[in-house]
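[job 0412] stage=fold_complex status=start
inputs:
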Amino acid sequence: MNHTLSVAPMLDWTDKHCRYLHRLISKDVLLYSEMITTPAILQGDKQKYIGYNSSEHPLVLQLGGSNASDLAKSCVIAEEFGYDEVNLNVGCPSDRVQKGRFGACLMNEPPLVAECISAMMNVVDIPITVKCRIGVDNNDSFENLKGFVEVLADTGMKTLIIHARKALLKGLSPKQNRSIPPLNYDFVYRIKQYFPELTIVINGGINSLQETQQHLKQVDGVMLGRAIWNNPWMLYELQNQLFNTKGANSRDRVLKKYIQYCESQLSKGVKLHWLLPPVLNLYHGIPGNKKWKSHLVTHAPKRDKDLMVFEEARGLICE
Ligand SMILES: Cc1cc2nc3c(=O)[nH]c(=O)nc-3n(C[C@H](O)[C@H](O)[C@H](O)COP(=O)(O)O)c2cc1C
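[job 0412] stage=fold_complex status=done
writing structure:
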C-alpha cells in the first residue's frame, strides 16, 4: 500500500460521500473510513456502517475496539468487503471511547495492543496498521513512545501513523485534544530513525504542499485531516506534485461528476443535505465561495431532491 499521502479518518466527516469526492480529485491518495467500532460491525447493519463505493480504493477501514477476538472477526468482514487495509485506532481520547477501553488510552497498554494486532494479522491477508499519538497524559517521554513502537514492531506490523501530539485523557474535549497539546514532529522523525524498517506516517497540523514535502524528507508518508476538509482542492495540487500526474481535473469537472453521483444517491433514498458537507468547501479561496456555501445550506434542505441548487450556487462563484 502506498502511504505517501493520505486523508485522515474523521468521524462524521470522511463518510463514503466525502471519500467519493476526494477520489474524484486525487486518484492516488489513500483514503480512510471514519472510526467504526467492532460492535457496529459485528451486530449492526454492515452495509450501513462499512459499505462504500467501488471507486474509493485504495481504502482503509479504521476500527475502534480492544477485544482481540472481536477485532479479528471485524477484520475478516473488512477483507470480505474488499477493504485494502485495516487500521486500529489508538489515538481517540473521547470519554465514550475511554469507557470502552479503546482509542488513545490503549497507549498505556502496549501488550494488549500487541495481542489485538497479532489476532488481527492472523486471520487476514490485508495489512494491519495502527494510528496512535506520541503519548498520553504523563506517559509522554520519547522512551515511552519508543517502547510502545517496539512492542508493536515485534508483532510484525509494518506501518504506523503517528499524530504528533499527546492526548490528555482528562479535562479536554476531543476537539481541544486536536489543538491544545503541542505538536512535536521531532518525536515522529526520531521513531523513523530508530525503526527504519517501519513505514512511518506523520499526522497533525500539516497544512500545505510545502509542509508535506518537508515532512517527506524525514518520514515515509503524510496524513492530512482538517486541511483537506477545509480545502479539498488541495488534493489536486498534492496529487500532481507528489505522484507526478498532470492536470487531471478542474473544480467544475469534479462538481459535475459529484452531481451525477448525487443523482444516483438520491435514487437510492439518500437525502441531498447528507451529500452537501463534503462539497461545501470545494471552491475554498475563490471569490464567491461564501455565497456558494450559503446558497447550498439555505436551499438544499428545502429542496431535498433538486440538484439545480448546485448549478444555481455555482453561478455565484466568480471564476
Ligand atoms: C471531525 C474529526 C473527527 C475525527 N475522527 C477521527 C477518527 O474517527 N479516527 C481517528 O483516528 N482520528 C480522528 N480524528 C483525528 C484526525 O484523524 C487527525 O489525527 C487529527 O485531526 C490531526 O490531523 P490534522 O491536523 O491534519 O487534522 C478526527 C478529527 C476530526 C477533526
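[job 0412] summary: The pocket of flavin mononucleotide is lined by residues 8-13, 34-35, 62, 89, 91-92, 131, 163, 178, 203-206, 224-227 (CB under 6 Å).
[job 0412] exit 0
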